[in-house]
Amino acid sequence: MPVVRFVRSRAVAQRLSICQKLSMAWVGLIVGLLFTTTAHGQTGVRSTRVDLSAAELQTEGKAAAGLVVGEVVQLRAGRQQGSIQSPQIEIPFAFNAVGPHWAAQVPDGARVEVEIRTSADRTTWTRWTPTAHAAPVASTRADGTPNPHAGDTAAGPVLAPPESRYVQFRLTLHRGAASPALRRLSLYVVATEAPAKRPSPKDENDATPRIYARDEWGAQPPRVGYRYARATHLAIHHTASTSAGGADTWDACAAAVRAIQDVHMNTRGWIDIGYNYLICQTGDVFQGREDGNDQRDVVAAHDAYNEGSVGVSGLGYFHPPHDQQPTAALLDGFTDLFTWIAGRRDIDPDGTSYYAGYGAQVANVYGHRDVRATACPGDLLYTERLTVRSRMADRLDIEETPSDVAVSSNYPNPFRTATRFAVELPAPAPVTLTVYDARGRHVATRRFGRRAAGVHTLTLRTRGWTSGAYFYRVSAGEHEDTGSMRLVR
After folding, report:
1. How far apart are CA 42 and CA 119, in angstroms?
2. Average predicted confidence (pLDDT) for the chain
């Protein structure tokens, strides 16, 4: 009879026993269920960890001819491969992500593979999803505290439909120099609540990419402060999570990002989500491990090197066995975000330069597999990096613009929350607006990208600015126009 331990608000504990009929056998489980009642960025997180020792899988092991199941799960003599399927495990709340981690000895050339599937009703199940991005768990968390899962191998989260209540795993061992020996497999199961207020959509008159900030999608705060290194490279990843790629609404995408952050922080022990940004198949861009200060670049934890690279992950599984196709909106999201960053950091999308963290020359826009032995970002997204590079080059190409560029004074002036400029271009040119305060200190830079010939409206929003006089410079190719404006609250 399974025993469930509930812990509320990190303080009150009580034991409850529940009777749970499993699909293949009665299995004893110890489940730690942690309810976090304190909101983080207007979001609550509910999680549980299911720990199954090898001995608890002995009944299932009887049907796995290639395995010996006892104190450890290992291959029988002479067998090169063997699989075992877990019982169907009921979780006492609806969840939207599962982060597996396991304790095993893995000899040279051997492999441990874990696949996950989920169900809302125990009848209809998702496809089996192979886990990806497996890496050792460090002995301490990034904040210096001991990691209770030190020595485990943790995989990236598998995202599930938000109404999921049941989970099942399939474990496959592959022989190398010897058989792997697995002692325990744990499932970290997560449910996240949505922020109280739905963010506003992108202003179509604003040429900068619409990036949903951390407080908009409901991020938890980082455990410790960030590190910084100037960005010289842009990295393409995928989350290797099938349900995420199927998300077709902003809410579904945001829920996936919240779940990824929680798994990264509570299985790997990272200070925050691993990526600097994440992009959904809808094209929505979410701020990850970033602080909103465009003058500096945060070091994330995305490809094991990280110093000087911005890691951006597409939500989806763009590789066999799922072969999800990157949508046009996803590629537009990568193009818009990368062009914006490259414009600020003078990154040539077609170039190759020294990647400080990696210690060698790498393409400025690269896929995760270019620096590490991994399938990431998947075959189907990796090939699209060429499309993204080409689009970036078109937008960033600076051509000499005739001197008869016309820039209007801002209107209205004075203004309260926003003001606009009209810019007439006789030929295509990149357009940038830079603002300084009355003491000449830089306040903001807005890059509107490469604009076609014609008249364009530039919108400058000033949320959080103080009242007073400001100076601006509008640059269009080699043409510059300057002026002053006044903000009145």
Report:
1. 28
2. 84
Residues sharing a CB contact under 8 Å with residue 436, sequence separation 6 or more, in sequence order: 442, 443, 470, 471, 472, 473
Pairing of strands 454-461, 89-105: unpaired
The closest alpha carbon to 69, from 56, 87, 79, belongs to 56
Clarify whether residues 167 and 251 are in a common domain.
no
The answer to whether 204 and 136 are in contact (CB under 8 A) is no
Q: Which of 426, 388, 433 is nearest to 410 (CA)?
A: 433
Using CA atoms, how far residue 247 sits from 160, 284, 316, 359, in Å, is: 10, 11, 9, 37
- CATH number where 453 lies: 2.60.40.1930
Amino acid identity at 26: W
Beta-bridge mates of residue 31:
4, 50
The pairing of beta strand 81-85 with beta strand 135-136: unpaired
446 and 385 part of one domain: no
Question: Which of the listed residues 163, 192, 221 is the one where a domain comes to its end?
Answer: 192
Could you read off the pLDDT of 250-308 as tens digits, one per residue?
988 999 999 999 999 999 999 999 999 999 999 999 999 999 888 899 999 999 999 99
Q: At how many degrees (to 10) do helices 385-396 and 328-345 cross?
A: 50
CA dist list (Å): 34 to 10, 47, 459, 467? 7, 6, 46, 46
Q: Domain for residue 284, yes or no?
A: yes
CA 53 – CA 63 distance, rounded (Å): 17
Residue where a domain terminates, one of 328, 362, 396: 396
Mind giving me the DSSP string for 415-449? BSSEEEEEEEESS-EEEEEEEEETTS-EEEEEEEE
Q: What is the pLDDT of residues 308-334, one digit of tens each?
A: 999 999 999 998 888 889 999 999 999
Phi and psi of 332, rounded to 5°? -60, -40
SS3 at position 74: strand
What is the residue range of 346's domain?
A: 211-396
